[in-house]
């Protein structure tokens, strides 16, 4: 039997299996203030992000990596010299400096990166990917490619559209 929410006058239709449609139904039924579309877009984005992250993390676990460690290695791999400051890694990955430091501790412990003092700034530490780190990130990336980086069931046109739209939204929000 369908349940009623506070303020609801009708049971949720049995056809509402999508949680975002369910939220839309109750938003409209309860005549909530605010922008329904923004709320639904946020909810949908978070739900899809969770699906992608779960798929990616499952694949990375097969390589004994977590998402942050993989992204640190990829950022170093993609860097021109394979070296970045820990503070730059934190900014690039949008994580706290402590999170970047803990990730570098883990990766250094596995000989996937090495730390060196900055040549001119005693307060800064450089992090460089090692040959072992390059091999592992290459293998992990190949595994992620097997699952389309978590975009299971998506086609290239939709992924391209999503990338373009997210680039516009990020730029408009000041993320560039």
- Stated plainly, the CATH topology of the domain at 19-25 and 43-146 is called Arc Repressor Mutant, subunit A
- Gyration radius, in Å: 21 Å
Low-confidence stretches: none
Strand order of the largest sheet: 1-3-2
Q: What is the strand content?
A: 5-15%
SS-derived structural category: mainly alpha
Task: Describe the fold and architecture.
Helix content is 59%, strand content 7%. The protein has 176 residues and is mostly helical. It has a domain of 111 residues: Winged helix-like DNA-binding domain superfamily/Winged helix DNA-binding domain (Arc Repressor Mutant, subunit A, Orthogonal Bundle). Strands 1-3-2 form a three-stranded antiparallel sheet. A hairpin with a 7-residue loop joins strand 2 and strand 3. Helix 1 packs antiparallel against helix 2 and helix 3 packs across helix 6. The termini are far apart. The model has no long low-confidence stretch (mean pLDDT 91).
Annotation keywords:
Arc Repressor Mutant, subunit A, three-stranded antiparallel sheet, 7 helices, 7% strand
Summary of the model, kept short:
The chain has 176 residues and is mainly alpha-helical.
What's the helix and strand layout?
Layout: H1 19-29, H2 36-61, H3 67-78, E1 83-85, H4 86-93, H5 97-109, E2 113-117, E3 125-129, H6 131-146, H7 156-172
Antiparallel strand pairs: 1-3, 2-3
Helix pairs in contact: 1-2, 3-6, 4-5
């Amino acid at each position: 039997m369908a349940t009623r929410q506070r303020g609801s006058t009708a049971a949720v239709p049995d056809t509402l299996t999508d949680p975002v449609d369910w939220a839309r139904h109750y938003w409209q039924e309860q005549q909530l203030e605010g922008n329904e579309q923004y709320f639904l877009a946020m909810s949908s984005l978070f739900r899809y992000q969770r699906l992608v992250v779960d798929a990616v993390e499952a694949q990375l676990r097969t390589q004994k990596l977590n998402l942050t460690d993989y992204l640190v290695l990829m950022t170093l791999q993609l860097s021109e010299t394979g070296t970045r400051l820990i503070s730059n890694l934190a900014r690039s990955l949008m994580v706290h400096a402590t999170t970047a430091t803990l990730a570098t501790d883990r990766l250094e412990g596995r000989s996937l990166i090495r730390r060196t003092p900055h040549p001119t700034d005693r307060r800064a530490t450089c992090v460089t990917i090692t040959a072992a780190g390059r091999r592992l990130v290459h293998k992990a990336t190949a595994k992620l490619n097997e699952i389309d980086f978590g975009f299971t069931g998506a086609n290239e046109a939709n992924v391209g559209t999503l990338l373009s739209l997210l680039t516009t939204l990020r730029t408009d929000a000041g993320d560039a």
